[in-house]
Amino acid sequence: xxxxxxxxxxxxxxxxxxxxxxxxxxxxxxxxxxxxxxxxxxxxxxxxxxxxxxxxxxxxxxxxxxxxxxxxxxxxxxxxxxxxxxxxxxxxxxxxxxxxxxxxxxxxxxxxxxxxxxxxxxxxxxxxxxxxxxxxxxxxxxxxxxxxxxxxxxxxxxxxxxxxxxxxxxxxxxxxxxxxxxxxxxxxxxxxxxxxxxxxxxxxxxxxxxxxxxxxxxxxxxxxxxxxxxxxxxxxxxxxxxxxxxxxxxxxxxxxxxxxxxxxxxxxxxxxxxxxxxxxxxxxxxxxxxxxxxxxxxxxxxxxxxxxxxxxxxxxxxxxxxxxxxxxxxxxxx
Length: 334
Hints:
Helix content: 40-55%
Radius of gyration: 30 Å
Oligomer: single chain
Shape: elongated
Order of helices and strands: EEEEHHHHEHHEHHEEHH
Number of helices: 10
């Protein structure tokens, strides 16, 4: 990168080798810029000084040169980076982990949707070193007001037309992306379809985003900031570990009577020789052996979920190697 070439550079003044002042011919204002050479690198940092006064510009240019040298000496990042770029770098590291089998490809899709979705909209263009406690703590409030949840048990609200348009655009975007993933040519929504969808959003309450969803997104937010600290893009003081006060959603547990009913009904279902067809009529199972095996597996999974609190993804990923045999005090196998 050449230090002072370019047709836009005018009124150039060399303060010292590697530090110049100049104006730009491709802008309407008369503000000064400075360009500082990074020591021991073929790179230059250009900064807008936002002043037309030449004396003030000279003083500010010397300050910028001092800041660059200080940053190099203490291992601080010289160039400012928006959160969007740091998020992409962090996501690339996670994709490498997925290739090594440390995390699943589904997890990568989830992280991509979080980073390119709400986090990008909230602070994507903000320089990462400017993200402080206020932006960290304000995320839950912003997310509830700018997102749409799935269940009304978290509360609901009416939305403005601006928010409705954003929600509809995001929804159609997800549909098109899903179609493209499945190899189907995505159809662009018509203006009539968009207007109808917006009207539906305006007519009925929209569920709030749950605190569990916000907590998961903030974990990604914090992980990206921790990555920025390791890369020396920001100081260690920008490590966010304490989450804002968020509600912990707990589902009601089964009562003993409900559990016994589930246990008994499930056991009877496994032994039953009939099944219900699409119309709800009782029909004999064509392959009794296979039916018993499948029903037993489903029944056992239900019992494991009830007794351990496992979530559906954890149940799907359960393997024999995850189970350790145990014995009671008498030596009998449990």
